[in-house]
Design brief:
This protein is of the alpha/beta class. Helix content is about 40%, strand content about 20%. Bound molecules: pantoate. The site of pantoate has 10 residues, from strand 2 and helix 7.
């Protein structure tokens, strides 16, 4: 596995691969890798000749300086996991390499980002769109792989690709869970023992809500029940629970036949912010 640290090095690497007729897959990450990330690398390996993983804790997508400071950073352990999973090149840039000058361009994804993560983390999707655009320009992948745990991020990136005509395909891979249902996340490493013990509640609440959606319980009632259950656990501070259209991400007042529903939540456990979601209907 080749280690690349400069933008020019990454460009040269993929330019050569493309000239040789190879298909290039890109797996953008912020490191502290878990089985969810490795699944993305394996999916890319199955589709592509070259698999480039990027490892960059992107400062511009954190609206909370403490969250950025405490984000787990384990570059050596990450590198050791990537090669056996099928990664052929690892891009690990410094902050000045990715941002040689402050960015002034601002993205506006309209209604897509006025809900959930976008509403609760001002500027977050601007930072995501900025760094993902840079990675797409530098790596010029045929395909880029993202996890469905960040469902709204996937929707925003699909919009970015459509609006800016990036010549690539987005592949979204399912959320990987621990045996007790907790969605794998780099932030799980920061959970204390008590918070970790309480954390499976998030998925339990989502699954119970999904069952209610299948039974036709109206979204307002589903929301209220989920919020009440979450509020009942003293170690959990819910931030939002939403019943939304899976494509537009807009909150629902009633269900529309043939359209998938996504249930999304964010909650704080012992100072760690976690998100999760499940999909209901239309092939989910
Ligand atoms: O999902 C993430 O880890 C990040 O938001 C991403 C896509 C790597 C951009 O920094």
């Amino acid at each position: 596995m080749q280690i690349l640290t400069t933008a020019a090095g990454l460009q040269a690497y993929t330019e050569q691969a493309r000239r040789a007729g190879k298909r290039v897959g890109l797996v953008p990450t912020m490191g502290a890798l878990h089985a969810g990330h490795l699944q993305l690398v394996q999916a890319a390996r199955a589709d592509c000749d070259e698999v480039i993983a990027s490892l960059f804790v992107n400062p511009t997508q954190f609206n909370n300086a403490e969250d950025f400071r405490l984000y787990p950073r384990l570059p050596e352990a990450d590198a050791a996991l990537l090669a056996p999973a099928g990664c052929t090149a690892l891009f690990v840039p410094s902050v000045p390499e990715m941002y040689p000058q402050p960015t002034v361009l601002r993205f506006d994804f309209g209604a897509l980002e006025q809900v959930m993560e976008g509403a609760h983390r001002p500027g977050h999707f601007n930072g995501v769109a900025t760094v993902v655009s840079k990675l797409f320009h530098l790596a010029r992948p045929h395909r880029a792989y993202f996890g469905q745990k960040d469902w709204q991020q996937v929707a925003v990136i699909r919009q970015l690709v459509a609006d800016l005509s990036f010549d690539l395909e987005i592949v979204a891979c399912p959320t990987i869970r621990e045996a007790d249902g907790l969605a794998m996340s780099s932030r799980n490493l920061r959970l204390g023992a008590d918070a970790r013990a309480a954390a499976p509640l998030l998925h339990q609440v989502l699954e119970a809500a999904a069952e209610h959606v299948r039974q036709g319980v109206l979204p307002a009632q589903v929301r209220a029940d989920a919020e009440r259950t979450l509020a009942h656990e003293p170690l959990v501070t819910p931030e939002y629970f939403e019943v939304a259209d899976a494509q537009t991400l807009q909150p629902l007042e009633k269900y529309v036949t043939g359209r998938a529903v996504v249930l999304c939540l964010a909650a704080h456990l012992g100072g760690v912010r976690l998100i999760d979601n499940v999909m209901v209907g239309a092939g989910a």
